[in-house]
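[READ THE FOLD]
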Amino acid sequence: MERLEGVDLWETLHQMLNVRKEDPNYYDFNQEEFTMHVVRELLRGLDFLHSHNFIHKDIKLENIVMHKNSSRTNPMNDTVVMIDFDTVEPFHGPDVPKIEDILGTDNYIAPEAYFGKYSPQSDLFSVGVVAYKMMTGAFPFPDTLFDDRPGENFVGHPKMAEIGNKVAKHKINWKCANLHKHKEAQDLIQKMLHRNPDKRITVQGALKHPWMQRSIAMEHVLSPKHSVRRKSLNYIAKPSGAILHSSSSNSY
């Protein structure tokens, strides 16, 4: 695998916050534009993963690396890379047996997952949490909801059912100024965080959403270096270890 140069998204956001405190005009992009960049690339990566019948199950800020293409680049030109694939599992349709152990990270886990019902829609929920955090600076759910103890994270335990129901019923704050200002962003995030996985937007639907379509249209302007360097997800690994990239549009 290639070496990644950079830090995870959690650290990136903290670094950007510290830089903006020193110089509010240091970056020539805003919070919404950076969120669009990350969400767009996550959706493209998940589209590829899901098309091969796999789900990630642990999308979170710490499992997203902002791979720098040089020693000092604009974060809008960083390659968004999903990591930590030890939770990845195959998914062959809604009739697959329930998963016994509940995997993932508090605040990112979809409500249905607490009952063992993982699906590609569970990954979309996690992306919604990432987007909400990037836009508002806060998580959509309070930490107090997740009061389970070690040894309780398996399907059928009363505490898991309790947390799953609390997450599903919790009223998310949609009155945050930054969301209220960017209605398209709010609309897509709401669709990704829908409590019912059957009504939650799909990855293809998310990519066709007006917010993402605007991001795709502006990609070469807002992230010019990233657009040029974007790697195809379709490649052939040579015996020598070299990677041959094709010109497929299915990339991130």
About this structure: Residues 233-252 have pLDDT under 50 and may be disordered. The longest helix spans residues 31-51. The chain has one domain: 6-245.
